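Continuing from the previous page...

OK, I double-checked the sequence for Sensor histidine kinase against my notes and this is the correct one:
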Amino acid sequence: MTMIKTNKRMILPIKLLFIAVIQVLLTALITYVLVTNEYRELSSQSLDTLEHFLVEQKKQELKNYTALAVLAVDHLYQTSELDNDVAKKLVTNILDKMTYNGEDGYFFVYDDKGNAISHPKQPFRIGKNWWELEDGKGNKIIQILISNAKAGGDFYHYPWTKPSNKKISEKIGYSVYLEKWKWMIGTGVYLDNVNLQLSQLQFEIDEHINKTKNIILILALSSIFVIFLFGVTVNLRQKKQTDEKITELGQRIVNVQEDENRHIARELHDGIIQILVSIKFSLEATKMHLSKAVQEVPKPLQHAEDNLVIAIDEIRRISHHMHPQILDELGLSAAIDTLSADFSDRIGVSIKVFKPRARNLLPDFINTTLYRIVQESLINIEKHAKAEHVEISLSFDKNWLTLIITDDGKGFDINSVSEINDCGIGLRNLAERVEYHLGEFSVVSSSKGTTITAKIPKSSFENYFNQTRVKNNDNNGDIEFGQ
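Thanks. Re-ran it with the corrected sequence; updated structure tokens here:
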């Protein structure tokens, strides 16, 4: 089974909306990349600056702590002899007790040969030589610290066990040299706190970047939604106006065609047919005159009369097909009866017509639309359906005027454009007529037959009913819907 049903489709300029959406997306993407890169670059610079500041601050603290340590033992160092063991012992005792930053700030002492003299946090190193002690990269830690001390004091980054948590952490050490005793006094601070601060700051920066990304994304999606909504609204309004104009223009064309058909049909019926009938009477009078004169009627005369009768019947048929006068004079119901009876007599198909018992007169534009649907349907049945029975039902309920035409023919393929276009004025044309009255038009076809349904809402002609009812009441009479 195939089915065709007409409805109004929304056609939007998708390309324009697509271009606008792409532009917003590109703008959002470019903005995101530029803002993110700029933000990351500024953040990286800020982190580098902060790291440099914190490290420099630590270095300055180391210098200050070392200066205090040297100052604390300077009176012993300056007044002692070269190898005064008592003075050295007193100095190491003082340095062992000088701590800062909890457990992690302390001083250590090595001689220029790498022997550990003092180390309050790792006493197992005292008395042993650590000249070859290396870090993970192969750098000689003690040798570098001694070299920096001899150079007048310098800094060195190296990994070392942090006393407070017993874990290896990055440490920055500073060392000075006591020339008389050949000692290197050093200290250092662990940078894990600095790294923790930098990591926390980096996390906050990433959070800000993510928030910025979300804001840009939300703005982009909001812009796309607003553009789409605006585009849909504008185009729906434009489409509605365009559809109204097209529908109005189409109906004007239909009305002009119907008026022209009505005019031609009237001219044929009242003009040409009357002339031909007059000629027919003249020919009949001539035949009667010849009969009275006991003369044989010439065959050309008889042939002319026969052809004239055929021409009159054909012109009447054409006139009735273009616009039946009975539709204007007696209404839709009588016109459908006449059309159905003529169709049944001509091709021998049984037709049943079901009409409502209503006492209302439909407006001409509704009568014409429904009559054309019946007319076109019967033409199509005659040409294509090979049907034996046809039913035409016209009903009028509370909200709808419904016309249903059913046949038991072979049906046809609704999707076949060529077949549909071959059907007289065409199903599409009929559908547009119904849609103009805000109605619904559908065709259902299968091998068991075809059903055409046209529904027109009461709202499309109720004002006409109201005006007619007032007029009828004034005239104290009723106008029949049909006979």
